[in-house]
Amino acid sequence: MLAKRVIPCLDVKGGRVVKGVNFLNLRDSGDPVELAARYNAMGADELVFLDITASHEERRTILDIASRVAEQVFIPFTIGGGIRTVDDFRQVLRAGSDKVAVNTAAVERPAIITEAAAQFGCQCVVVAMDPRLVGHNSDGTPRWEVYTHGGRKPSGLDAIEWAQRAEALGAGEILLTSMDRDGTQEGFDIPLTQAVSDAVSIPVIASGGAGTPRHCADAITEGHADAALIASIVHDGIYTINDIKLVMAAAGICVRPVPPIPNAA
After folding, report:
1. Per annotation, catalytic residue among 45, 51, 88, 130
2. Could you tell me if 229 and 13 are in contact, meaning their C-beta atoms sit under 8 angstroms apart?
3. Residue 173: CATH number of its domain
4. Is the pTM of this model over 0.85?
5. What is the C-alpha end-to-end distance of the chain, expressed in Å?
6. Which of 11, 88, 218, 226 is catalytic?
7. Phi, psi of 12 (to 5 degrees)
8. Domains in the chain: how many in total?
9. Quick check: is 130 catalytic?
10. Pairing of β 99-102 and β 77-80
11. Looking at residue 56, what is its pLDDT?
């Protein structure tokens, strides 16, 4: 059985880690390099670094900071934000990432998914999606629309259909962030997570809404996700990675054990 993952996320703006609610009212959460080192030592399975205003500001990812973060981690590392070309993929991978997350550029030119997968392998291509509930389909099921440019622009794309298309184009993973739940700490959007996870065969990372370790377990058991992305609950020191993994393990989820803390008495 494959272990399910717990993945801290560093949303970076102006060189600092920030966190808001529903993509708004951002507050400072610390230095990305220091936080990366902390989560690496705490037993995180992977780390995600997102330059959250790069696409909106039409600039490239802040590679100098991203590369310094990469030096602190010895776990799989994903960088995203402002990725517009295959050359951007190349530069980010050279900066020390193992995977690259692309959102806005993939919506605007889906061929970038296929081009990047052909050059670097599907496992390197993470398609990030920021959906919001916008109504219901004719059969009564919820309809989530994908937003781009850091949640600022509606794309007109149905989230489930876009996830399926991204997989067909060569994506190796989906990073699924619920705009409705982002930063609320009220739990992941289980219906959205389950709908997307069940619609594709590639791994889905649930994001947006983690407030307790139980929420992370629910994203796996009820949402059928392969990983839970977390931010505020660890940035603010409310829970540790081990706290989360203990609850997940108690729920029958296979997780990687947290390594012992060096020099712990």
Report:
1. 130
2. no
3. 3.20.20.70
4. yes
5. 33
6. 11
7. -110, 135
8. 1
9. yes
10. parallel
11. 52
Give the model's pLDDT for residue 262.
56
Q: Report pLDDT digits (tens) over 125-170.
A: 999 999 999 999 999 999 999 999 888 899 999 999 999 999 999 9
- Show the domain range for 128: 5-250
Report yes or no on 259 lying in a domain: no
Instruction: Answer whether residue 122 is part of any domain.
Output: yes
* 46 found inside a domain: yes
Q: Residue ranges of the chain with pLDDT lower than 70?
A: 19-27, 52-61, 261-265
Strand duo 153-158 + 173-177: pairing? unpaired
Nearest CA among 105, 109, 99, 107 for reference residue 202: 99
11 catalytic? Reply is yes
Nearest CA among 158, 159, 212, 160 for reference residue 184: 212
Residue 55, in any domain of the structure: yes
